[in-house]
TrEMBL record:
The keyword Isomerase applies. Substrate binds at R21, H22, G23, E24, S25, V26, Y27, N28. The lineage of its organism: Eukaryota, Metazoa, Spiralia, Lophotrochozoa, Mollusca. Keywords: Glycolysis, Isomerase. This is Phosphoglycerate mutase. Belongs to the phosphoglycerate mutase family. BPG-dependent PGAM subfamily. Coiled coil: none annotated. GO terms for biological process: glycolytic process. CDD domains: HP_PGM_like (cd07067). It catalyses: (2R)-3-phospho-glyceroyl phosphate = (2R)-2,3-bisphosphoglycerate + H(+). GO terms for molecular function: bisphosphoglycerate mutase activity. SUPFAM superfamilies: Phosphoglycerate mutase-like.
């Protein structure tokens, strides 16, 4: 059985979930649906990805675990 002490600890632990979408792809740029094709990022998408990384760094984010898609 779980002790009351452990239960209280679990209830007060705070977690942050950060969701990040990829930057604009060349298919997005052309309004094409890519399905399971791993389209390259457009120049705008590359800039968006770099900017997103800078924002995470500036915000002091650190991560214990990360999940990605297969694409």
């Amino acid at each position: 059985s779980i002790s009351r002490r452990n239960t209280n600890l679990e209830m007060t632990t705070k977690y942050k979930i950060v969701l990040i979408r990829h930057g604009e792809s060349v298919y997005n740029e052309k309004s094409l649906f890519c399905g399971w094709h791993d389209a390259e990022l457009s120049q705008t998408g590359i800039q968006e990805a770099v900017y997103g990384g800078q924002l995470l760094k500036k915000g002091g984010y650190t991560f214990d675990i990360a999940f990605t898609s297969v694409l």
